[in-house]
Amino acid sequence: MAGLTTHVLDTSKGRPAVSLKIELYKIINEQKELIDTFITNNDGRINEPLISAENLEEITYELLFYAGDYLKKQNNNLKNIFLDQIPIRFSVNSRVEHYHVPLLLSPFGYSTYRGS
């Protein structure tokens, strides 16, 4: 099955990230062109491929995950979001391949270093 899919898991809850907004762009001459906006289902996926095999192009794409909005809805006491919007930019090199972009989310998905 060729095309583009994604799957988002909320590791802090141990379950799929439900109702997470995702935007899909194609990048042409460093300009972003919105293709579509999606919302994840109860399995943390989109019901159909983000791009079908017929519409897949050998170009650069970007998925923009609205992690901050999702995490704030899931965690009412969360004050600061480390990763708010997460862009993942990638290139498609073959129209007959299946491209899958997984994402693991957590409000605790960062580290700090306080050197001496």
SSE blueprint:
Layout: E1 3-10, E2 15-16, E3 21-28, E4 31-39, E5 51-52, E6 60-65, H1 67-74, E7 86-91, E8 98-105
Parallel strand pairs: 1-8
Antiparallel strand pairs: 1-2, 1-5, 3-4, 3-6, 6-7
Low-pLDDT runs of 5+ residues are none
Estimate percent helicity.
under 10%
Number of helices: 1
Strand portion: 35-45%
Give the SSE string.
Answer: EEEEEEHEE
Shape: globular
The number of distinct β-strands equals: 8
Structural class: mainly beta
Distance between the termini: 52 Å
Mean pLDDT: 90
- From the alpha carbons, calculate the radius of gyration and give it in angstroms: 16 Å
> For the report, how would you describe the main beta sheet?
4 strands, mixed
Provide an overview of this structure:
The chain is mainly beta and 116 residues long. It is 7% helix and 42% strand. The chain contains one helix and eight strands; from the N terminus they run E-E-E-E-E-E-H-E-E. It has one helix at 67-74; strands at 3-10, 15-16, 21-28, 31-39, 51-52, 60-65, 86-91, 98-105. The strands form two sheets. Strands 1, 2, 5 and 8 form a four-stranded mixed β-sheet that branches. The longest helix has 8 residues, at 67-74. It is globular and about 45 Å long.
In short:
Helices cover 7% and strands 42% of the residues. By secondary structure, the chain is mainly β.
